[in-house]
Amino acid sequence: MKNIFLFSGQGTQYYHMGSDLRESHPGFEKNLTQLSQIVSDVTGCSILDIVYDPGKQKSDNFSDCRLSNIALLTIEYALAETLIQADIIPDAVCGMSLGEYTAAVVAGAMTFETAVYLVASAGSCFDTHCEPGAMLAVLDDISIYHNNDILYHSTDIAFDCHGKHFVIAGDIKGINKAEKYLRQQDVCFQSLPVAFGYHSRNIDPAHNAYTRVLNSYSFRKLHMPLYSTVTTCCIEYLDGNHFWRTAREPIRLMEALESIDNSECYRYIDLGPTGTVANLLCYRKGQRPVSNIFPIVTPFNNSQINYSKLVNAVNQNEVSSFATHV
Description:
Blueprint: E1 2-7, H1 19-24, H2 26-43, H3 47-51, H4 65-85, E2 92-95, H5 99-106, H6 112-129, E3 133-138, H7 143-146, H8 149-154, E4 156-163, E5 165-171, H9 172-184, E6 189-191, H10 207-214, E7 226-228, E8 234-235, H11 240-248, H12 253-258, E9 266-270, H13 276-282, E10 293-295, H14 303-325
Parallel strand pairs: 1-2, 1-9, 2-7, 9-10
Antiparallel strand pairs: 3-5, 3-6, 4-5, 7-8
Helix pairs in contact: 2-4, 2-6, 4-5, 4-6, 6-10, 10-11
């Protein structure tokens, strides 16, 4: 069975993410420490002191994109390194939004140091050029968006899960209009911990500044398949424009995963801090077996249990494969 590493994006970060795995797994802690030194060298900030600030609660808003995006990148890549060191090797990667940076690092397109610089630069560009924005996860069918002028004209679709769940984004004024309408209609929604309306017109003013940064880099050849939630297919090379598209265009996770070769049997491993991608896959009707989907880090202090389940599943598969070939 092959492994595909899945990386979530903005809005899935929170204070103390991965703290239980950090306490129980020395390898993960070591990787975090080493990566945090790289972050410090590039940005001058101590990212672990920020993420694991004892004065913060998990429920506190962690939306400063200059810090939260780097924190998410660091946690996800530290976990990827931990799995690889345990001989759980990815055969392919897929990232949502910011998660495409982590996927690109794992796939060899750039170093972690370069990714930190690009993510930090994105935060600076958004802070400098964009008005504050927001994102809402809406728990209803997406048809209500297309059939309502308030939602349609005030916000943009950031992500359609193809079920009873979608995400909208926009500037504060537009999101406020959307919230008012959704409350009037008794539609459940939840604000995401972000400072801007990613995947919407809210970030368009940062386009020129950030693409100048992105286009100053040449990306290396990928050494494994990277399934993009922008192009919805396996991509062969990356350029600066691609990473602008990961921030601006809608997330098409389901379409990207449907493009994976169905003749292969994959183990879907969610390396984000909430298990969001794993949950989306589990509730996707008529798709891959739930037994092949593995979250690891979650906010519920069960990360070590989840990690052990994954390791056991991999080991059992290896034993079964060996027995089959004997």
